[in-house]
Amino acid sequence: MDAARLGARRPRPREDARARGRWLADLHGRWASLPLPEPRPGFPDELVVLHDPSSDALLDAHEAAQPGWVGLLRAHLHAARAATAHVQVRPRHLIHGDLTPWNLRVQGNRWTGLLDLEFTRPADPLADFALAWRGTHDDVIHGYADVRPQSDEDRALIPALWWGHLLGGALRDL
Asked: What predicted TM-score, i.e. pTM, was given to this entire model?
C-alpha cells in the first residue's frame, strides 16, 4: 500500500521567505498612500508598550507569583526599551500585521492573493517586518531590501518591535 493511501502526510514545500519579503515591500508600496483608519482597539503601538511606565508596574504586580516568567519579560522589555530609547516618531502606514506563508496565495512565483486581514491597522511599517520576521526569517528582510532598501537603524529596530508586540500580548494576559 502506498503512503498516501495510509494517510501519511506529504512534506510541505519549503517557503521562499525572500519572495515573501519582496511581496511585503510591494504591499507597503501599494498601501503607502491609503488614508489611515482609526487605531484599532487591542493593538497597542509597540513603542508605546515598551516605554509605558504601566508595563513596569504590571510586571511588579505579578513578580512574586511568577518570578521566572516576569523576569524573562522584564529582561526583554528593558533590552527593547534600550534599543528604542533614541526613537522619537516613526512613520505610520496601513500594515497587514500577519504576513505569514499561510496568509498568502501564490501561483507559480506570483503573489495572487492575501488572506487574514484581521490584524490590519495603522502602524509603523517596521512592525510588519517584525511580525513577518518572527525572530527567525531573515530572508524576509533581505527580500524586502531587494525592493525597498532599509537603513541600518531601521533594521536594528526590528527585534525590539518584535518584542514590543510579544510583550503587548503577554502584559495584556498577565
From this structure: 0.82
Number of domains in the chain: 1
Cα separation, 153 vs 26, whole angstroms? 21
Question: Which CATH number is 22's domain given?
Answer: 3.90.1200.10
Q: Which three cell numbers stand for residue 61?
A: 504586580
Q: Is residue 33 part of a domain?
A: no
77's CB contacts (< 8 A; 6+ apart) are 50, 55, 56, 59, 163, 167
Is 95 strand, coil or helix? Answer: strand
Tens digit of each residue's pLDDT (9 = 90 or more) over 105-119: 988 888 899 999 999
* 153-167: pLDDT as tens digits: 998 999 999 999 999
* Cell 498612500 sits on residue: 33
Helical spans, DSSP H, in 16-109:
17-31, 46-51, 53-62, 67-83
Rounded CA-CA distance 163/88 in Å is 18
Q: Which grid coordinates belong to 135?
A: 525572530
